Amino acid sequence: MGTTVSVSNVTRRYAASTYALKDVSLDIEAGEFVTLLGPSGSGKSTLLKILAGFEQLTSGDVRIAGQSVIQIPPHRRDVGMVFQHYALFPHMTVAENIAFPLTVRGMRKRDIDLRVAGVLELTHMSGYRRRYPRELSGGQQQRVALARAIVFDPKILLMDEPLAALDRHLREQLQIEIKRLQRQLNMTVLFVTHDQDEALALSDQIVVMRDGRIEQKAAPELLYAEPANRFIADFIGESNLVPCAIEGGQATWCGLALPYRPSAVAAGAGWILIRPEFIDLSAERPAQGGLKGVLQESMFLGEGTRHLIAVGDVSFKVRASNRQRDTYRPGQEVYLNWAADKARFLAD
Predict the structure, then answer these.
(1) CA-to-CA distance for 313 and 102, rounded, in angstroms?
(2) What angle do helix axes 94-104 and 138-150 make, rounded to 10 degrees?
(3) How confident is the prediction for the chain on average, in pLDDT?
(4) Rounded CA gap, 239 and 4, in Å?
(5) Can you give the three-state secondary structure of the chain, one letter per residue?
(6) Reported confidence tier of residue 36, pLDDT bands at 50, 70, 90
(7) How confident is the model at residue 287 (pLDDT cuts 50, 70, 90)?
(8) What does the CA dihedral 192, 195, 201, 204 come to, rounded to 10 degrees?
């Protein structure tokens, strides 16, 4: 498919020792949906703004479709942009807002009208073309912003937390719409969010950032199952991280053996990662043994129940399906067990 965007050794320094980005390199393939994910201050929005041309880099290079763009102004980079707060022109109708990028490019009115009609249909906004932004809901305004960003067929679509201002139900609806459009149009998308569930739902690849650096880039399934370190394991999804020592191929914690999948690590201190949904909970000690703990709390979540179990000084999270719901009470002794191939050792 080829590379649409290539970020090479990009650094953004604000002062002698204050960095927003530190030697970041990233390739985005044509038609790929890539999400930058990380906590506040990790550098994800700075990287997006550098790609858009809204912020200058200190060193490095950015190429879009093979061409370096670091000396090219934003309006000439052929990049679509969708912001969190829509950024629509309040004095323009929906159709006029969407037409604006085509108008400034000098396109003929007849062609503009055809393009606008096409994206209005794609975004299910055909009945709103004569309305003004103030007459639209938040979700409708974001659809207009998306339509305006894709109407000129940009080489890449940049989206900076576009759904953060919406309620959960509407956010989930628009996630489906964004993914549908991306696949239908084979768009290349770079999406910024701090919402891990959103990143897992939308992305072909997720780039986890921390302190201006890329920690890991991987497909959502691999990132969840094979996080590179403790930070990523803790940041992506719910996790249980148990301190342990590896010796002779055995992981131990407080004298207890912990099932885990053997790795290249022969010995040393680290953490066993086990996701809550992979832990079996029982009131009776299973034949294969298990960790004995005390149930602290159970929380009904609709599709499942989340249990908190104290084992020594560690509080384990267990997520159980409600299809066959077992009733446990706070203070009850319970046993935890999991298959060795569901647990992973992390050295840091």
Answers:
(1) 62
(2) 20
(3) 91
(4) 35
(5) CCEEEEEEEEEEEEECCEEEEEEEEEEEECCCEEEEECCCCCCHHHHHHHHHCCCCCCEEEEEECCEECCCCCHHHCCEEEECCCCCCCCCCCHHHHHHHHHHHCCCCHHHHHHHHHHHHHHCCCHHHCCCCHHHCCHHHHHHHHHHHHHCCCCCEEEEECCCCCCCHHHHHHHHHHHHHHHHHHCCCEEEEECCHHHHHHHCCEEEEEECCEEEEEECHHHHHHCCCCHHHHHHCCCCEEEEEEEECCEEEECCEEECCCCCCCCCEEEEEEECHHHCEEECCCCCCCCEEEEEEEEEECCCEEEEEEEECCEEEEEEEECCCCCCCCCCCEEEEECCHHHEEEECC
(6) very high
(7) confident
(8) 30
Contacts of residue 29, Cβ cutoff 8 Å, sequence gap at least 6: 1, 2, 3, 4, 188
Place of tokens 């650096």: 213
Spatial CB neighbours of 246, under 8 Å, sequence gap ≥ 6: 265, 266, 267, 268, 269, 270, 345
**What are 147-205's pLDDT values in tens digits?**
999 999 999 999 999 998 888 899 999 999 999 999 999 999 999 998 999 999 999 99
Length reported for the chain? 348
Q: Which of 32-36, 59-63, 238-242, 283-287 has the lowest mean pLDDT?
A: 283-287
Structure confidence by residue, pLDDT tens digits, 291-309: 999 999 999 888 889 999 9
Across the beta sheet with 240-247, what order do the strands follow? 256-258, 250-253, 240-247, 268-274, 343-346
pLDDT level of residue 325 (50, 70, 90 thresholds): low
